[in-house]
Design goal:
This protein is α+β, with helices and mostly antiparallel strands. The chain has a domain of 67 residues: Histidine-containing Protein, Chain: A. A hairpin with a 2-residue loop joins β1 and β2. α1 crosses α2.
Length: 99
């Protein structure tokens, strides 16, 4: 059957199929090809990006690339930035004074 001629529309992609397409788009992007991302399917039309980005700009780019895969996709950014999000927390000033 050919969609459109019979009145039937093709089934929308599953969450796993969408995640696979996003993984490929991220791997194909020259600025992101050396960065490992986990694309987790949440439900149809919604994925989460997990992993460590080398910079905020790279993380933002990854979200844009993922969102460009399909117009109706929701991408939740769960990325962390190396050198920022992996830094140890410092004690608040109040605690340092009493130490």
């Amino acid at each position: 059957m050919v969609a459109g001629l019979t009145g039937q529309q093709p089934a929308p992609p599953t969450a796993r199929q969408t995640a696979t397409r996003i993984e490929q788009a991220l791997a194909d992007d020259p600025t992101l090809q050396d960065v490992e991302f986990d694309v987790l399917p949440v439900r149809a039309g919604h994925v989460e990006l997990h992993g460590w980005a080398p910079s905020r700009a790279a993380g933002a780019r990854a979200v844009r690339v993922a969102a460009a895969v399909a117009a109706d996709i929701e991408v939740t950014n769960r990325l962390r930035v190396r050198g920022e999000d992996d830094m140890p927390l410092t004690a608040p000033a109040e605690e340092r004074r009493h130490a």
